[in-house]
Amino acid sequence: xxxxxxxxxxxxxxxxxxxxxxxxxxxxxxxxxxxxxxxxxxxxxxxxxxxxxxxxxxxxxxxxxxxxxxxxxxxxxxxxxxxxxxxxxxxxxxxxxxxxxxxxxxxxxxxxxxxxxxxxxxxxxxxxxxxxxxxxxxxxxxxxxxxxxxxxxxxxxxxxxxxxxxxxxxxxxxxxxxxxxxxxxxxxxxxxxxxxxxxxxxxxxxxxxxxxxxxxxxxxxxxxxxxxxxxxxxxxxxxxxxxxxxxxxxxxxxxxxxxxxxxxxxxxxxxxxxxxxxxxxxxxxxxxxxxxxxxxxxxxxxxxxxxxxxxxxxxxxxxxxxxxxxxxxxxxxxxxxxxxxxxxxxxxxxxxxxxxxxxxxx
Length: 362
Ligand SMILES: NC(=O)c1ccc[n+]([C@@H]2O[C@H](COP(=O)([O-])OP(=O)(O)OC[C@H]3O[C@@H](n4cnc5c(N)ncnc54)[C@H](O)[C@@H]3O)[C@@H](O)[C@H]2O)c1
Prior knowledge:
The chain contains eleven helices and 15 strands. By secondary structure, it is α/β, with parallel strands linked by helices. It has two domains: 3-129 and 299-320, Rossmann fold (3-Layer(aba) Sandwich), CATH 3.40.50; 131-290, Dihydrodipicolinate Reductase, domain 2 (2-Layer Sandwich), CATH 3.30.360. It has a nine-stranded mixed beta sheet with strand order 14-13-12-11-7-10-9-8-15. Helix 1 runs parallel beside helix 2, helix 4 (83-92) packs parallel to helix 5 and helix 10 crosses helix 11. The radius of gyration is 21 Å and the shape is globular. It starts with a strand and ends in a 6-residue tail after the last helix. The structure holds nicotinamide-adenine-dinucleotide. The site of nicotinamide-adenine-dinucleotide has 25 residues, from helix 1.
């Protein structure tokens, strides 16, 4: 049975959804899009055409759309500060929710959302798209089968050239901590996934170079400790001069007991330690090349399918909202660390919000 979807947000990344992510799932009968919302009529019209919808199925007001459309689930692709109000509308109509990351723009709102979803007995998933891209999934498969042994460190680099105003979507130039909340949420999530255990401690430095046309901090360095004894290091910049490791071309390196795996610009190479040598030398570019995993759906197209399998009665998708609080906690604990100038214990930080959380609306 195709699940009926009300899609909210047709501009910006929402256009990708209407053009790239929803259509393959419509084509194979996983979903049927029955309504579309965007406050911007131009974006709405573009989305309507991509999805072949009637004008009567399209709305410029979310409240109106939720009042008029019968759907099993809603998909949310609007800026994070608006996620909670759409979640409230969806839960008011008994709908399940698949939302863009981050869960919300604050730790408090993220925990409130997870608690409201649980109280309503609905399911909510979050699209950590990049963790489910083909290249990152291949790297994960390599390091999680233990062929390289226990993991020591995971390093990640994002270096994008988005310094000019409006080059990374206006709201990111106006918000606090755009790199951590809008960008690093993906990369810290990937590092934690590759490390294979919850993050225990995080230490972050954030700043904004003079050429950054932003209100908030665009550059970060983060150090992490994980519960299995592994460690993470991340450098993120949305003002880097040359776009060296921009979106979908990031750098990740996993150092394990018996080898190294490097992902750079969607190419993966692996180095194995020779146990017969007392010491060994290797060099980037000279490792064993690894083919990317085969597959038809990746990123959000895959996550829509995973969500629907969960609705079918399958196991919760890995990025269910409860588990995804870990990724949001990484971001907001990093912000707290930058504010304090010292490491923050991530699980205690998350728990402090759970203890004080309330499911009453804002
Ligand atoms: N997973 C990824 O790789 C990825 C990439 C880009 C953006 N995102 C996420 O997608 C979400 C949207 O980001 P964006 O870059 O598309 O933002 P954007 O500002 O470019 O576009 C947002 C769209 O939502 C519409 N909108 C805003 N408020 C609305 C409301 N209350 N009701 C209906 N429509 C509304 C706007 O008119 C606009 O068309 C964010 O959560 C962002 O983090 C994820």
